[in-house]
Write a structure and sequence with these properties.
This protein has 22 helices and 12 strands. By secondary structure, it is α/β, with parallel strands linked by helices. It has 3 domains: 3-100, no CATH class; 103-266, no CATH class; 273-465, Dna Topoisomerase Vi A Subunit, Chain: A, domain 2 (3-Layer(aba) Sandwich). The strands form 4 sheets. A 6-stranded mixed sheet has the order 6-5-8-7-9-10. The protein has a two-stranded antiparallel sheet with strand order 1-2. The protein has a two-stranded parallel sheet with strand order 3-4. α16 links the parallel β7 and β8. α6 (102-123) runs parallel beside α9. The termini are far apart.
Length: 468
């Protein structure tokens, strides 16, 4: 029998089982190897006899005894034995696997991380000597100082091979951005298809897409003429990596889009739309659907066509239609005095927010704090969240429209029951325009759709327009 087999048989005794299991766990969790003590409670006779023999000591039986065994002494006697093993050698012999401390595992992981990034840089043909911004950004990932490193690390934890593929494709896409002609715009889906064969691979919701976006925050700054301030960009977007890609807020979506634009990437500016009723702009009392592209083409001179001091915005299309019908009965004679009505259609799109920016003076529109935004939404978690987002973005202009505790109590008997999760979310709205509203909603456990009080919204809008 070999010495290794003898060691396996000797330490395979029942009296060693619990001790070695605890030793294995403590060794792996440590940063500096075998230290401290192994503590065993309710010591059995087998354990007492086996461990006393190994530790060259004697202790009388004590019922329900808890005893500590020095790991340092264990390793000393182990090395002095005929087996002449260290603790990691013994654990590896018994388990059949390489046993490493937490520090050793971290060092190995860090080495794999550096090797993965170096491999991707080499595959892209980048050289530190050229001062290429793409290479500088990629090298910064190694030290986790470049934006996007947390995203890449997240992929790396799942698979180092997947992380290297992700970085290789990302570098290829960034180089394609650098190589575009002067003043040339690249549409994101087209670039994605050319680089990967998949028109959606570079979408922000994917890890690869987020890596590409973070690369643009650095590379795009140095490859366009807009002089994007990286320090400002980081301050505005530093929290984006922490959120779920499928739950990005509209505000973040605008920031994301601006980075694309500054990097010379044209995203989809047609599918983002807004439903708008503005007779003074279109000279007709009809609703219009504007794409994001059309919203961005609105000029400052066109803002002079609006004379009404209030922008009305509702969450749901049916309420939007009711408000339009009510105004059409009054506004045919003087469309210039008709109100501006917007439908958010749930969570506002980028087109909706850009239009509001223009109307409320955050862009080249009205530069007046006198213009008010009256927003009406459902009295549920989503409706309150949308309203809070608008209130945060337009604090001087926002007015909660029929979204009060009194409105809630008037219609609570006609509401819909909320689930436990949504009910609990009510108490997250701590800084709200009506502090009693979320409290009442949590107490009653009922949510309300704004269609219930659409007549009140119509009457209030008519009163404010003063054209009856």
């Amino acid at each position: 029998m070999s010495l290794e087999d003898e060691a396996r048989r000797y330490f395979g005794q029942a009296g060693f089982e619990r001790f070695l299991r605890r030793l294995m766990a403590q060794y792996k969790a440590s940063s500096s190897g075998a230290r401290g003590y192994v503590t065993l409670s309710n010591l059995s006779d087998d354990e007492r006899q086996t461990l006393n023999q190994f530790y060259r000591t004697y202790s009388p039986p004590v019922p329900n005894e808890t005893k500590r065994f020095s790991i340092r002494r264990f390793e000393k006697y182990l090395q002095e034995s005929r087996f002449a093993l260290t603790v990691p050698d013994l654990l590896m012999l018994l388990s059949g696997d390489d046993v490493r401390t937490k520090l050793e595992q971290r060092n190995e992981t860090d080495a794999q991380w550096r090797s993965m990034i170096a491999g991707a840089i080499a595959a892209a043909g980048l050289s530190d000597k050229t001062g290429d911004p793409v290479c500088i950004w990629a090298r910064g990932l190694e030290a986790e100082s470049s934006p996007g490193s947390r995203t890449l690390r997240y992929v790396f934890v799942r698979s180092s091979e997947e992380a290297e593929r992700c970085l290789r494709v990302c570098l290829k896409a960034l180089l394609a951005v650098q190589e575009r002609g002067r003043g040339e715009w690249l549409r994101l889906p087209i670039l994605s298809a050319r680089v990967t064969g998949d028109a959606h691979a570079l979408d922000w919701k994917n890890s690869l897409g987020r890596m590409f976006w973070w690369g643009l925050t650095v590379v795009g700054d140095q490859s366009n003429e807009n002089g994007f301030d990286m320090e400002v960009g980081e301050r505005e977007t530093s929290h984006i990596e922490k959120v779920d890609a499928f739950a990005v807020s509209v505000t973040n979506a605008i920031v994301i889009r601006e980075v694309y634009r500054r990097g010379g990437i044209a995203d989809d500016d047609l599918s983002s739309q807004v439903m708008l009723y503005a007779p003074s702009l279109f000279s007709q009392c009809e609703e219009r659907i504007l794409t994001l592209r059309q919203v961005e083409q609105l000029s400052a001179s066109q803002s002079a066509l609006f004379s009404h001091p209030t922008v009305y915005m509702v969450e749901n299309p049916a309420v939007f239609a009711e408000l339009i019908d009510a105004d059409r009965k009054l506004g045919e004679a003087d469309s210039r005095r008709s109100p501006i009505i917007i439908c958010g259609n749930g969570q506002p799109s980028v087109a909706v927010i850009k239009l509001l920016d223009w109307l409320l003076g955050r862009g080249e529109g009205f530069a007046s704090e006198d213009r008010e935004l009256y927003y009406a939404g459902d009295l549920d978690a989503a409706g309150l969240s949308i309203a809070q987002g608008l209130r945060s973005r337009y604090p001087e202009h926002f007015r909660a429209w029929c979204m009060s505790a009194s409105t809630y109590l008037s219609y609570v008997d006609q509401g819909i029951g909320m689930g436990a999760e949504e009910r609990g979310r009510m108490m997250q709205f701590v800084d709200i325009w009506d502090s009693q509203l979320p409290v009442l909603m949590n107490e009653h456990g009922v949510k309300l759709h704004q269609e219930l009080w659409v007549d009140e919204l119509v009457r209030d809008m008519e009163r404010r327009c003063e054209r009856r």
